């Protein structure tokens, strides 16, 4: 039911217009494909102790395939790392039907619709927060969140605040994001990682070994 409700969401007019326009016009390389063009739900192991929290779907990645990080260069880098560290049964993912299975990890995003220029607004982040709250209620064993980038880190701080008892504002001063940074929040302990975007992976800002280290650290904390 959560996925069905999410896929009908139209809370952010700018994102609705963009995701649907991209799905209509399509990139030439995918001209013959049917684009998803809707909010993208999380996926993975429902009993996972680790949440991988991304920024938002890529316009011609998850907005096309309907599964986070599936079918784009960021996903190529991420799924290879998950496979190396034992969280995925294969190192690549190109479609929702490619046989990928995750163990111990659930993947979601702070914003569930593809944003123009990969830059959602703070208001769009806040509009999506209730979906993350509902999803976390379903993921009863999640204890650690790997935040892929500063935007996801900030959204995870807000998520922790929203699900605390009683709900509270996000911490101030805000815990600083960095690769390998940790914040002992509740119910989620946060670990920061640079986003596996081409801008970071092509320049060496994020290397395979760096991402592997974060994944292994999350596994230690999740025990």
Give a topology summary.
Elements: H1 2-7, H2 13-25, E1 43-44, E2 50-54, H3 62-65, H4 73-84, E3 105-109, H5 122-138, E4 144-148, H6 150-163, E5 182-183, E6 189-193, H7 198-201, H8 208-222
Parallel strand pairs: 2-3, 2-4, 4-6
Antiparallel strand pairs: 1-3, 5-6
Helix pairs in contact: 4-8, 5-6
Report a brief summary of the structure.
The chain is α/β, with parallel strands linked by helices and 223 residues long.
Key phrases:
single chain; 223 residues; alpha/beta; Uracil-DNA Glycosylase, subunit E; six-stranded mixed β-sheet; 6 strands; 38% helix
Tell me what the structure shows.
The chain has 223 residues and is α/β, with parallel strands linked by helices. It has one domain (2-222): Uracil-DNA glycosylase-like domain (Uracil-DNA Glycosylase, subunit E, 3-Layer(aba) Sandwich), CATH 3.40.470.10. It is built from 8 helices and 6 strands. The protein has helices at residues 2-7, 13-25, 62-65, 73-84, 122-138, 150-163, 198-201, 208-222, and strands at 43-44, 50-54, 105-109, 144-148, 182-183, 189-193. It has a 6-stranded mixed β-sheet, sandwiched between helices. A hairpin with a 5-residue loop joins strand 5 (182-183) and strand 6 (189-193). The longest helix is centred in the middle third of the chain and has 17 residues, at 122-138.
């Amino acid at each position: 039911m959560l996925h069905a409700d999410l896929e009908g969401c139209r809370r952010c007019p700018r994102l609705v217009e963009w995701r649907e326009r991209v799905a209509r016009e399509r990139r030439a390389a995918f001209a013959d494909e049917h684009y998803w063009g809707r909010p993208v739900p999380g996926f993975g192991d429902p009993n996972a102790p680790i949440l991988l929290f991304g920024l938002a779907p890529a316009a011609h990645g998850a907005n096309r395939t309907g599964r986070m990080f599936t079918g784009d260069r960021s996903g190529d880098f991420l799924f290879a790392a998950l496979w190396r560290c034992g969280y995925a049964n294969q190192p690549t993912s190109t479609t929702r039907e490619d046989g990928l299975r995750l163990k111990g990890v659930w993947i979601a995003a702070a914003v569930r619709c593809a944003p123009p220029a990969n830059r959602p607004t703070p208001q769009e982040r806040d509009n999506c927060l209730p979906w993350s709250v509902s999803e976390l209620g379903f993921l009863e064993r999640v204890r650690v969140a790997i935040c892929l980038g500063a935007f996801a880190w900030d959204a995870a701080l807000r998520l922790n605040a929203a699900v605390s008892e009683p709900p509270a504002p996000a911490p101030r001063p805000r815990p600083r994001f960095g690769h390998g940074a940790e914040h002992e929040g509740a119910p989620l302990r946060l670990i920061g990682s640079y986003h596996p975007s081409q801008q970071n992976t092509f320049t060496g800002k994020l290397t395979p070994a760096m991402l592997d280290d974060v994944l292994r650290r999350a596994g230690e904390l999740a025990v």
